[in-house]
Amino acid sequence: MRSDWVDIPFDGRCIRIEYQWLRPERAQRPLVVFLHEGLGSVSMWRDFPRSFCEAGDFRGLVFSRYGYGRSTSRPHDEKWGVDFMHRQAREALPALFEALEIGADSSHGKPWLFGHSDGGSIALIHAASFPDSVDGITVLAPHILVEDVSVQSIAATRRAYLETDLRSRLARYHDDVDSAFWGWNDIWLDPAFRQWDLHALLPQLRCPVLAVQGENDEYGTMAQIEGIHRYAPQTALLKLAPCGHSPHRDQPEPLTQAAVRFINAHTSYLK
Fold first, then answer.
1. What pLDDT, in 10s, does the model give residues 55-112?
2. CATH class (in words) of the domain with range 4-266
3. Domain locations along the chain
4. Per-residue DSSP letters for the chain?
5. Does pTM surpass 0.90?
């Protein structure tokens, strides 16, 4: 499917964001906005967003964040800070929603956020920071704290990028693969990032939350989604096995069934 682009303000300049609408003709149905993982992009989702929207009769929006896919690349000398996910959630995402007329008072209405990994964390931060901006969120393998297993696996990914064909495989999904990889990898392995933590934000979540984790996730443990439930008791948990860090690839059918039911049960309007 062909991508479109929209310009948004971010960090004092204009950046270009790649995006695709899915099933826009279903104007009266919920809009699901997909937030990709730390090395993801529009194309790296493959066919899951469309299949998911067809299963639930939803509309969808898929986009590549700054530094990923066909969006504006991160300059190689630009280092992301510990707050990079907070900035995506509080600055870049609202700017994108304004540009595409998404929101309670806009033509597309309030969205559901569907985030994977870093995208799940961004969904949590956005929903906690702007409680009235979304109908609900579904988060797959989200991070709310930095665990040893996360750092160890990300360090292993760094070695694979330098020593195997991982770089060439990822290059199919990004205009500037080194920009995408090192922006993500460098900050996650920065010792200062070990203090990154979302616990203080979680009680601010007011919307319905479905939190999903694979029992074999190599980047995080059940402490991630159980922590969300502890601080935001309205959270429903879905634990999948056998399943690694990507439930939408490892267990697409049970994930789709559960998430479609959850969205339909908690959407503020259904027509």
1. 999 999 999 999 999 999 999 999 999 999 999 999 999 999 999 999 877 778 899 9
2. alpha beta
3. 4-266
4. ---EEEEEEETTEEEEEEEEEESTT-TTSPEEEEE--TT--TGGGTTHHHHHHHHHT-EEEEEEPTTSTTSPPPPTTPPPPTTHHHHIIIIIHHHHHHHTT-BTTSTTBSEEEEEETHHHHHHHHHHHHSTTS-SEEEEES--SB--HHHHHHHHHHHHHHHHSTHHHHHGGG-SSHHHHHHHHHHHHTSGGGGG-B-TTTGGG--S-EEEEEETT-SS--THHHHHHHHHSTTEEEEEESS--S-HHHHSHHHHHHHHHHHHHHH-S---
5. yes
